[in-house]
Amino acid sequence: MAVKRKRLYRQEGVTEQMSKYKGIIFDLDGTLLNTIEDIGDSMNGVLETFNLPIYSYEEYKKKIGGGFRKLTLNSFPEKIDEETIDKALDMLYKNYDRRYLNKTRPYESIDNLLNSLVEEGIKLGVNSNKKDEYTKSLIEKFFKTIPFVKVYGERNGIPNKPDPATALEIAQLMNLNPEEVLFIGDSNTDIVTAKNAHMDSVGVLWGFRNREELCKYGASYIVSNCEEILYIVEGGKGTF
């Protein structure tokens, strides 16, 4: 796959020597897969049951990233009791279970990117705040041939991102130091996770958040297409 020599955004202090990595950990929603419609439809179904206003897909892009409980809290009025949240969360999981494969698709060129990284000998992993069973099911559905070292979603007893526990666990399973691993995601949650794990980060612009947020939280790199990720991994020395 040819690497396009496009202009990349690189945060101040990130050097060319830091542009070579042996492992990459990907976020899932908004990074590998466009899941916004299935999640939005599922949450709107819950809101309609409670006779509450529903949201557009664009509005949901600002609510997703911290797991389904946080999504539920972000979608309901501020003053809501815990019992109602638990009931709504249960409904959300039931809705999502019926439709999570309906409209979800990989982003453009993601398959080519993953296969190219495998050919380069880069070790790959996934760290999502989506429930572990959904995370694994989606990876199996869309990326069955990709030899991920480990795929983790939300697990009981393990804190969600931006806690670095899972990212560090995956790096250990890769037999790599955190500094050798690049964390790629689309939101502040992913950028902060990378910082907490002492990993460099790539913020992608095709996901759910914007450049302003990724810059604000200090992404090491910001990219607009998959070819730019390959360029970083291959130690590109073009214009940044």
TrEMBL record:
State any GO CC term.
cytosol
* InterPro entries with a match to the protein in the record: HAD-like_hydrolase_sf (IPR050155), HAD-like_sf (IPR036412), HAD-SF_hydro_IA (IPR006439), HAD_2 (IPR041492), HAD_sf (IPR023214), PGP-like_dom2 (IPR023198)
This protein's superkingdom? Bacteria
| SUPFAM superfamilies in the cross-refs | HAD-like
Please give the Gene Ontology molecular function terms for this protein: phosphoglycolate phosphatase activity
Which Gene3D superfamilies does this one have?
HAD superfamily/HAD-like, Putative phosphatase, domain 2
PANTHER family, per database record: PHOSPHOGLYCOLATE PHOSPHATASE
Q: What is this protein called?
A: Phosphoglycolate phosphatase
Taxonomic path: Bacteria, Bacillati, Bacillota, Tissierellia, Tissierellales
